[in-house]
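hiii so um. not sure if this is the right channel but i have a protein structure encoded as tokens and i wanna go backwards to a sequence. like what aa goes where. can anyone help
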């Protein structure tokens, strides 16, 4: 049986998400903001984050899949669902669960730029450094980690563990 070691409790996540929501609300005051969640992993984080924000926001989603092993991105990224909103002239904040190699986010940003938004920023629940393959700037982060495979609060391993309220290190 894989072992789960808690990295962030639900209370700790709650505090960090609230702080981040305050900062984003301040930074985007009086600007037209759209949050774009990356399915499936970011939906839990996005739903908490948006409800703690104090400015009006729109939301949309993209879904990407990377056909690699269960625990690493292959870099062969396919857009399974695109945004349906018009991004022209809007400030986009991409909301992701975790940035690992950076390949997914780099490809997604390149794609979203083609819709001519006013700006694009990146918000990730987790920024994991060890396996970064491409430089990828993350503007807002809840938790930074050097390595380890994390699950819970939306993050999965083979589609499992997304429903856990805390974030855990999965030791296979
Ligand atoms: P990358 O930055 O292109 O390597 O890929 C990021 C994607 O890989 C994330 O959106 C997750 O779906 C998945 N991923 C990478 N590391 C983890 C992890 O520790 N737990 C769960 N999913 C992960
Ligand atoms: Mg993902």
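sure thing!! here u go:
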């Amino acid at each position: 049986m894989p072992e789960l070691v808690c990295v962030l409790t639900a209370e700790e996540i709650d505090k960090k998400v609230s702080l981040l929501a305050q900062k984003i609300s301040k930074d985007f005051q009086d600007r037209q903001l759209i949050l774009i969640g990356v399915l499936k992993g970011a939906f839990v984080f996005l739903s908490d984050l948006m409800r703690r924000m104090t400015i009006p926001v729109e939301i949309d989603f993209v879904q990407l899949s990377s056909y690699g092993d269960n625990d690493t991105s292959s870099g062969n990224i396919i857009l399974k669902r695109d945004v349906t909103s018009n991004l022209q002239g809007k400030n986009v904040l991409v909301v992701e669960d975790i940035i690992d190699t950076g390949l997914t986010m780099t490809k997604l940003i390149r794609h979203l730029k083609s819709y001519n938004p006013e700006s694009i920023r990146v918000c990730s629940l987790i920024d994991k450094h060890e396996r970064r393959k491409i430089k990828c700037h993350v503007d807002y982060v809840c938790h930074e980690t050097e390595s380890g495979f994390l699950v819970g609060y939306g993050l999965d391993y083979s589609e499992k563990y997304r429903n856990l309220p805390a974030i855990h290190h999965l030791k296979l």
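oh and The mean pLDDT is 95.
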